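Annex B.
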Amino acid sequence: MKKFAVPLALGGLAAGTACAQGTVTLYGIVDQSIRFTTNANQANNSQVQLTNGAVTNSRFGLRGEEDLGSGMKTLFRLENGFDPDTGRVNQNGRLFGRHAYVGLSGGVGTLKLGRQSTEGFNLFGDFDPLTVGNYTANAWPYFMTGGRVDNAVSYDGTFGGLSLGASYGFGELPGNLKHGSYWGVRAAYNQGNLGIGAVYQEIRNAASETQRMWGVAGRYAFGPAKLFAGYLGGRDATGMVDGMLNDPSRSVSYGSFAANPRKDMTFYTGLTWQAGGALALTGVVYHDSIRNVNGVAGQSGQRLTGVLLAEYALSRRTQLYGTVDYNRVSGGAASEMPGRGNQTGVAVGVRHVF
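Membrane protein: predicted structure tokens.
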């Protein structure tokens, strides 16, 4: 991470008042992988591609803070996501689609205003063995979290081993404060080798239909290993989750999401192991039982995913990695894959952090 000081004018410079100093950090990750995938289209052909990283999407950003005295400071963060193979901007072409906020921090916590991660994403980013994987094949449970939210005000604070978070996203649509809005709360407690957490949130669309998500998770460290387990529940009357998970090549017949909201029960467990000074190994299994897939009453489905990841550190900033993943869908969830109801992916990549 590159840090440099910049002058932050407090006003009245012409009158000779002092100029405060703030710290700004330039940071980022460039992560590329070569990935082989079976059954990659409706004809069940295999695919080889150069693509973004297995676990960490490439990004760069600026973050900074200024000490205001009396334990207070101001802060900001601007973060961009991009694909190194093409130079294309992610998050639908947003300049700072990952984060864009300003805030104040003090003894009672931090208040932030702008585009931020949802509380669901914040919690499971800390309690998932892959820290929320980047390949869709591995990260599909977290589409239920919504990922990020615009026009948000958030609070987070840490009190001993207890961490709390709450966010509200303004829908900004005239006539109804609930249209397009978001709210979420989370809590986590860490004591010694044990950590546990829980979250609940709601996302409303322009018609004020609601996608609800809740979950609990835990981790336990023993020696060089960490054991993880968690549960995500969901009830989606907006069609958002089905819309993001369905393969774009599929012709899908939708029912009524308002009358038949999608319901998810996702469980996972996994283990990370620092096998040697430079080698880290991760394994995780996710399973989802789904009802009312695509808004069709009684249409059920299941999805099972297994992932193995090996990472080798060449230095503090550069890692090589290899990963294998297997996905299987059945029943109504078949629309989430283009051809056969299973895919196997194998990838190798390099990641540099700056």
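The radius of gyration is 22 Å. The first strand starts at residue 2 and ends at 8. Further annotation is deferred to the next reporting cycle.
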